[in-house]
Amino acid sequence: MTNAIEVTNLKKSFPQFQLKDVSFQLPAGTIMGFVGENGAGKTTTIKCLLNLLKKEHGEIKIFGLDHSEHETTIKEHIGVVFDELYIPDTLHATHINNILEKIFDRWDEAYYADLLKRFKIPFKKPIKQLSRGMRMKLSIAIALSHHPKLLILDEPTSGLDPIVRDEILDLFMEFMQDEDNSILFSTHITSDLEKIADYITFIHDGEIVFSKNKDELLYDYGIWKGTIEQSMELPEHAKIRMRKNAFGIEILVNRKEVNSAFTLDKPNIEDIMLFFVKGVHP
Amino acid sequence: MDIKLTNASDKPIYEQISEQIKKAIITGILKPGDPLPSIRSLAKELKISVMTTKRAYADLERDGFIVTFAGKGSFVAERNQEFLREELLRQTEEHLLKAVQTAKLAGIKGNELIDLLSMLVEEELE
């Protein structure tokens, strides 16, 4: 399988923050959820991918090509969505079509019109009069209308209601029907990710904590709950992270290393994130 | 064919899918040669990851329930009743083994376990 994105040892420093040796791969044909708390480095990483920020060190390849050397070719095949629509807000959806058809060789006017109709986005209304949900849907319609092979989305579903989120996830799954297409999306709404993501990459304080197959992540880990004394019965090497509260402790364990006689809860991505950020090594 | 996924189950989603397809094949809802939805369209309909549906299909293929032809898709495998019985027997054995192991942990003796099993057989089978 070829990789749509390949990041190796990416470094970038700011006075208050650094990306430290970020590495991950997104195999073509799959969806990766990029998660982490606010300020963990998600947007910085995405901006480096798009060459909007210059990297200091490391290698970034998109479709196997160096992201800066082949920037123009690469961008013809990428659709990008940020958390806001960075387009002058007096423009109409129709104006956007007239501009973008001149920029992208592969701009598909009919498909764009189709998406607008489907999302019930008015063709001739200034962007500033659209709701946040509408603007986000417009943003996604724009990103898809030149038939990209890779979608990069920064917090596309934050601040949207569950119905709009569902429509957007539908559209992503439709995009994924072409088996060469890939999606990288950052979010902190992990329930969306749990549904559709193939891989989860978790960044914390500028460092990648893990980049794993989602099914492995969800089914290989379990949460054990009990008292400190009871926890002695668990094999040491099965314990990954531990959290204490006033009434006992919770331990994230490797399911395979624990006898099935112990009751384990199924973690979700949020639980796993919390264990890695707030938990301690047992 | 219906596929119901639940988060309440301890079983991973890919296992829930492969088991429900197996059941549909064993009970004859799906007939040999019937086409299955593509990996990607199933993922889309169920709104789950493509890797998850891929894994479910890979398991079904490994167990001989379906065959996949590149570019054509997946189909229910042609085979006889004996094979199905074999598979169910294998599953039964697996479950019994688990029961024996659990009993061992609890210190339940062999004859106690056999009594328990005969009781269950009486209730369910006869």
Automatic annotation (TrEMBL), chain A:
<protein>
    <submittedName>
        <fullName>ABC transporter ATP-binding protein</fullName>
    </submittedName>
</protein>
<keyword id="KW-0813">Transport</keyword>
<keyword id="KW-0547">Nucleotide-binding</keyword>
<feature type="domain" description="ABC transporter">
    <location>
        <begin position="5"/>
        <end position="230"/>
    </location>
</feature>
<dbReference type="GO" id="GO:0016887">
    <property type="term" value="F:ATP hydrolysis activity"/>
</dbReference>
<keyword id="KW-0067">ATP-binding</keyword>
<dbReference type="InterPro" id="IPR051782">
    <property type="entry name" value="ABC_Transporter_VariousFunc"/>
</dbReference>
<dbReference type="GO" id="GO:0005524">
    <property type="term" value="F:ATP binding"/>
</dbReference>
<dbReference type="Pfam" id="PF00005">
    <property type="entry name" value="ABC_tran"/>
</dbReference>
<dbReference type="InterPro" id="IPR003593">
    <property type="entry name" value="AAA+_ATPase"/>
</dbReference>
<dbReference type="InterPro" id="IPR003439">
    <property type="entry name" value="ABC_transporter-like_ATP-bd"/>
</dbReference>
<dbReference type="InterPro" id="IPR027417">
    <property type="entry name" value="P-loop_NTPase"/>
</dbReference>
TrEMBL record, chain B:
<keyword id="KW-0804">Transcription</keyword>
<protein>
    <submittedName>
        <fullName>GntR family transcriptional regulator</fullName>
    </submittedName>
</protein>
<dbReference type="InterPro" id="IPR000524">
    <property type="entry name" value="Tscrpt_reg_HTH_GntR"/>
</dbReference>
<feature type="domain" description="HTH gntR-type">
    <location>
        <begin position="11"/>
        <end position="79"/>
    </location>
</feature>
<keyword id="KW-0805">Transcription regulation</keyword>
<keyword id="KW-0238">DNA-binding</keyword>
<dbReference type="GO" id="GO:0003700">
    <property type="term" value="F:DNA-binding transcription factor activity"/>
</dbReference>
<dbReference type="InterPro" id="IPR036388">
    <property type="entry name" value="WH-like_DNA-bd_sf"/>
</dbReference>
<dbReference type="InterPro" id="IPR036390">
    <property type="entry name" value="WH_DNA-bd_sf"/>
</dbReference>
<dbReference type="Pfam" id="PF00392">
    <property type="entry name" value="GntR"/>
</dbReference>
<dbReference type="GO" id="GO:0003677">
    <property type="term" value="F:DNA binding"/>
</dbReference>
